[in-house]
Each structure stands twice: as C-alpha cells, then as structure tokens.
Design goal:
elongated; alpha+beta; 190 residues; 14% strand; 5 strands
C-alpha cells in the first residue's frame, strides 16, 4: 500500500482504537461531536480506511439516518495504514454486513420522488436534522452552536429546508421557558 495517506492524530487514534476492538468498529469519543466528527471521518471513508455498515447488536452507533443506525468499521486498508496486520480477525470482520452499494443518480431521483430525503452524512444539514429528530428536540441556540449559523439562518433553514425541501413536520413548544423544536413522527400530516 502507498504511504501517501496523511492522517491527523485524531484519525490515527480512532483507527488504532478500532484495531484493538474485536468488532473493529470506530467508537466516537465524547469530545468529537457534530461537524468535527464528520470532517474527521470523511477522509477515512474517502480513502477506504473505514466503511459504513448498518449497526446491529452491540456495535457502537456513529450516526443515525432516520430510524437507521450506522457504524463505522476499520477496513484492511485502514489497518495497513496504521501498520496493523489483521490476518487473525479478517474472517470475523468479513461476517459483518457490508455497506450497501452507492446509489446511482437515477435511484437518488426516485428516492427523492418517493419522499425520502437524501442527505450527505456529516453535513450540517444532516447534523441539524439529527438534533431535531431527537425525542427531546433541540433549541435554536444549540443549533447555532453546532453549525456556527446565526439565529436568522437557523430560522431560514427551518422554513426553507426542513419544512419546504424535506417536507418534515417541524413542531415547537415551550418547555421550562425555552422554545424547543423537533421533528414530529408523521411528516405528511400537516
């Protein structure tokens, strides 16, 4: 393998920790949240050092896409990048399900037409929607902190993206004097 893949200390630590696990899964450190986490793993995914699989059992969840949880798992290439020989556990990791094939432009269009929004993993949009999908919801202040957006930008995102583009049912309520926003389960019942 080429030695041209440059890794940050954080990326190297994530891969090293995953190489020590029996299931080879990446576990998100508590200090790595939101957009920062997306940036850290984007290169790992692009270089084929990790792969995304559907979570099952006790696998740590890296991100959620609606009701589907996803796990990141180090690949043989990732092990080589950090100089770990993985012959002993190659069979064990091959038993886990592989990432589904990438969708073609045609299938993306049909998914959009079917009402299922397509979001890039780790994007600000995906992170904000994930915050809004939590049962406890979120505040505008929390979204501002997560994204770096100003308050009017968050409100514009609610109207233009959440409600109009993604056609999600955004509800708000006052809880303990704070306005909480969340996405209700039935998006079409508006």
């Amino acid at each position: 393998m080429e030695d041209s893949v440059k890794l940050t200390d954080t990326q190297r630590r994530l891969l090293a920790a995953a190489s020590q696990r029996d299931d080879r899964a990446l576990e998100r450190p508590s200090n790595l949240t939101g957009g920062a986490a997306g940036k850290v793993v984007a290169k790992l995914l692009t270089e084929g050092l990790v792969e995304e699989i559907q979570s099952r059992g006790s696998l740590p969840v890296w991100r959620r896409d609606g009701d589907v949880a996803h796990t990141l798992r180090i690949t043989k290439r990732g092990l080589q990048a950090i100089r770990v020989d993985d012959e002993a556990t190659a069979a064990a990791t091959d038993e886990l399900p592989k990432k589904p094939p990438a969708r073609s432009a045609k299938s993306r269009k049909s998914a959009q037409a079917s009402g299922h929004p397509i979001m890039r993993a780790g994007s600000k949009q995906a992170n904000v929607v994930a915050l809004l999908r939590r049962p406890q919801g979120t505040t505008i202040a929390a979204i501002m902190k997560e994204t770096g957006w100003q308050q009017h930008s968050v409100r514009g995102f609610f109207a233009g993206v959440v409600k109009k583009k993604l056609d999600l049912n955004l509800v708000s309520e006052k809880v303990d004097g704070q306005r909480i926003y969340r996405i209700a389960k039935s998006s079409a019942a508006r």
